[in-house]
Amino acid sequence: MSGIEAIVDPIRKIKTLYCFGAGHVAVPTCHIAALCGFRIVVIDDRADYANSERFPDAQNIQVQSGFVGKMDELDINEDSYIVIVTRGHMFDRDVLEKALKTTAGYIGMISSRRKKETIFNELKNQGVTDIELARVHSPIGLPIGGETPEEIAVSIVAELISERTKPDA
Questions:
Q1: Rg of the Cα trace of the chain?
Q2: What are the distances in angstroms from CA 86 to CA 19, 46, 141?
Q3: Rounded distance, CA 133 to CA 143, Å?
Q4: For 116, phi and psi rounded to 5 degrees?
């Protein structure tokens, strides 16, 4: 069978970005992530924010109270990327606590170093281990010095791409 050539073109499984929060950082993050081949799901508790006008690239937009109410119903697995950019510390903590119970391949939370320390300490007091918390990328994004929502979004999506292109991702 000489002379036969085979071309192998790896097919990458589509990764789903679950964006918890629909505020000013979420909009450009979801748009850029969609441009980079992620499937987009947006979850927020405000219909004025979580809608198709603000997120035209999203395949699924959910408005639900408390952010985590229906998290168990989402198809979160190893090909899922959870981005936590809610409007408040307690919402971020609640989503992170629930996210750590999933098999998500990536969990990232927007935060200052102080906010991260506070949330991590609260979760440790509830029995979450350092090993579990080591799964969390926080502050989220690559350190490119971004300040605007769009620049922060670029740093977040750059980190998502970096994780996606790892051999075991």
A1: 17
A2: 9, 11, 15
A3: 20
A4: -60, -45
- Would you place residue 166 in the very low, low, confident or very high pLDDT band (cuts 50, 70, 90)? confident
Tokens, residue 35: 């441009």
Pairwise CA distance, residues 35 & 33, whole Å: 5
Among the listed residues 72, 62, 69, 58, the one whose alpha carbon sits nearest the alpha carbon of residue 16: 58
Residue positions counted in the chain: 169
Place of tokens 């926080």: 138
Q: What is the DSSP letter of 23?
A: S
Residue 158 amino acid letter: A
DSSP summary character for residue 60: E
Pick from 115, 117, 97: nearest CA to 107: 97
For residue 20, what are the β-bridge partners?
43, 84
> What integer best gives the mean pLDDT of the chain?
93
CA nearest to 99, candidates 131, 114, 77, 125? 77
Q: How is the beta sheet containing 136-137 ordered, strand by strand?
A: 60-63, 39-44, 16-20, 80-84, 106-109, 136-137
The strand pairing partners of 107, in sequence order, are: 82, 136
Q: Give the global pTM.
A: 0.91
- Cite the DSSP H helix spans in 55-148: 89-99, 113-125, 130-133
H/E segment holding residue 62: strand 60-63
